[in-house]
# Entry
Amino acid sequence: MVSTGAIIDLLAFLPAYLHTIIGLDLRVLRILRLLRFFRLFRSTAYMRSAQMITNVFRKRINELALSLVLVVFLIILSSCILYFAEHQHPENQYKFTSIPATIWWVVVTLTTTGYGDMYPMTQLGNLWQ
# Structure
């Protein structure tokens, strides 16, 4: 009853019952309900699949870090090329205004969100898309 998980559970639901017992308005204590989120960490510690994923990340951290560096490098390189290709187009010079704005377009396009606010108009830009 005095373990960390039990105390978190008690603090998570206690404000709802204190309001009915004491009769005071304890809406400020509703923030303690956010402590329920920590219960997820307790439940994942016992799941075998979560442990397996954690082990994979621990064993392959070097390969994952190298992949992340490679992806960031390719995004920056392709953004620079696309910026210089599209910035010269008269209709598109107000859309691809800087390399960070072009990086935003590349990330949005790669994640398939595609807002449609920016799009390439040159042949080289369309090749990138």
Q: What stands out?
A: The two ends are 58 Å apart (CA to CA). The mean pLDDT is 77. The first helix runs from residue 4 to 22.
